[in-house]
Amino acid sequence: MQLKGSQIIMECLLEQKVDTIFGYPGGQIMPLYDALYDYRDRINHILTSHEQGATHAADGYARSTGKVGVCFATSGPGATNTVTGIATAYMDSSPMVVITGQVPVNLLGKDSFQEVDIVGITLPITKHSFFCRTVEELAPSIRNAFRIAKSGRPGPVIIDVPKNLMVEMGFFELYQPEYDDCPPVPVDMEQAACIAEEINRAEKPVIYAGGGVIISEASGELTALAEKSNIPVVTTLMSMGSFDRRHPLSLGMAGMHGEKEANMAVHNSDLIIAVGARFSDRVTGDTSRFAKSARIIHIDIDPSEFGKNMRYDYCVNCDVKGVLSAVLPMVEENKREDWNKRIQAWKKAKRKTHDKLNSDNIFEIINDVMGDDVIVATDVGQHQMWTAQKWPFRKPRTFITSGGLGTMGFGLGAAIGAQIANPDKQVIHISGDGSFRMNLNELATVSSQKLPIITIVIKNHTLGMVRQWQKLFFNQRYSSTDLPDVVDYEKLASAFGLNGYFVQNEEGLRKALTEAKSGKTGAVVACEIYIDENVAPIVPPGEAINNQLLTETLV
Q1: Which residues form the Thiamine pyrophosphate enzyme N-terminal TPP-binding domain (predicted)?
Q2: Superfamily per CATH, domain 359-554
Q3: Which of 258, 271, 491, 497 is deepest in the core (most CB within 10 A)?
Q4: Is 111 left (phi over 0), alpha (psi -120 to 50) or beta?
Q5: Sequence ranges of the domains in the chain
């Protein structure tokens, strides 16, 4: 049948079972928004306050569901405003398709109004970039974009569409998408047997679980393997929730701000089974001193990760779910009592809480009031690390954060996407007073969409992580880190039609959260803490992960 290019785009989105789009209209994408008007009963469009917020929302939608997030933006500044969001998704392997408007083909290369080469700009931060020159290219480009975004190691794809293609007529034929155009690599049973043999022989093994476990939906297989052979599990920031934090074999997060027992277990292990992890520098510290006595098995869907950051003794290029399923029957039951007793000795005692708010009692109260069955999105900074350390994530896709790029301002948009995708869940956005300022305009989206998102701002009047580094590594020369106390969070929330609270003690926080949870609108809860409370432990840059500065060193 003959359709306008804009209609072809919308039909292709329906083919891909897209139910939500996040975006912001403008001149060069206006024909697509005109077509969207006729599809408004089938596809929900969320108008955000800024294109960056739209990309973060699409990302949060994707991370909380496993489906491809979709974003629309116009040309020029609209397109360039998506760059940080695209890079954030790329670094964390989040599936996203961004469709941008472009000036008509006959105006390309003439410095036309709002013309920018967004394909060129985003080439290093996308899995693939499409530029359509004819209306006939639209359908195959969109179909391929979704296949690429979702298959293998997921990631963002951009499709740049000149305005004239959106109004031209073209032939369209319905198509049933097939993600198995790129079938998973079959598991080599000989490789699976070798992995099982290594595990059975090891005395001090550790499973190092990365974000690939969540992407592969392999949490069940990971848990079964750990339990059968009593192997302790450490996680990366991106895999929080892949293994129940309350499980006795869980050691929590490893790395720069990892738990002492997690880092010590990795450092003293004789076998590391790395599952869907990339050995980020934030995890390994000094690679020359990383687990020197351990053999390393690296399992990943992306072969480019093998040897990129860390040596390996054995690598398997395959979907981690398939590998773990194949290995499990071959692994012997083993209590590993000596190894697990040694790990228990490394576990730190629970610190006492005080009436004055601090990172310990804040998260204890939040979890107590909100419960475990929530989705938590964060920005980047001290509050992000405290969340990873102190929140007992029990299920996959319940912790949404920017790990690879470290994007301040990510959290609120991501929370919006997660809440839209999971209307029956409570979504909490945890931020710092530095990060929160970067994209607080998205409170307008929270309000206009009537989303019950609760934003918790941990307010210490400073750029906390920067100040912490200045204290520890720059001789306490606090340059440009203090934040003037100019924001009245209660009035700010009220201005957006939300409930606002400012609290300074445990009783106030508990009361505010209880009221916010029972309210019919979103809320902002600002919690004041001591400016010098730092994230601990911390591995100094360039050090081995067993060389941690602990709490008493910092406060």
Answers
A1: 4-120
A2: Thiamin diphosphate (ThDP)-binding fold, Pyr/PP domains (3.40.50.970)
A3: 258
A4: left
A5: 2-181, 189-346, 359-554
203: annotated active-site residue: no
Token pair listed for 482: 């203090």
Catalytic residue check, 113: yes
- The question of whether 384 is a catalytic residue gets the answer no
318-373, pLDDT tens digit by residue? 999 999 999 999 999 999 999 999 999 988 654 454 557 899 999 999 999 999 99
3-state secondary structure of 407: coil
359-554 has the same fold as 189-346:
yes
273-315 per-position pLDDT tens digit: 999 999 999 999 999 999 999 999 999 999 999 999 999 999 9
From 113, 171, 473, 474, active-site residue: 113
> Which residues touch 474 (CB under 8 Å, ≥6 apart)?
none
Q: Does CATH place domain 2-181 in 3.40.50.970?
A: yes
Which one is catalytic: 96, 253, 256, 465? 465
Structure tokens at 141: 């480009």
- Backbone torsions φ then ψ of 94, nearest 5 degrees: -105, 130
Please give the Cα distance from 157 to 145 (Å, whole number): 6
Please state, in angstroms and rounded to a whole number, the distance separating the CA atoms of residues 435 and 191: 45
382 is catalytic: no
Q: How far apart are CA 313 and CA 327, in angstroms?
A: 17
Which pLDDT belongs to residue 177? 61
Q: Locate 477 and state its tokens.
A: 């020369």
10 touches 174 (CB < 8 A): no
Pick the catalytic residue: 163, 204, 321, 459? 163
| Residue 436 is a catalytic residue | no
CB-based burial label for 517 (10 Å; 0-12, 13-18, 19+): middle
Catalytic residue among 10, 11, 22, 51: 51
**Which amino acid, residue 126?**
T
In terms of Cα–Cα distance, which of 257, 237, 267, 233 is closest to 247?
Answer: 233
| Residues lower than pLDDT 50 in the chain | 350-351, 353, 552-555
CATH architecture, range 189-346: 3-Layer(aba) Sandwich (3.40)
Sign of the dihedral defined by the CA atoms of residues 325, 330, 332, 333, in that order:
positive
Residues in the chain, overall count: 555
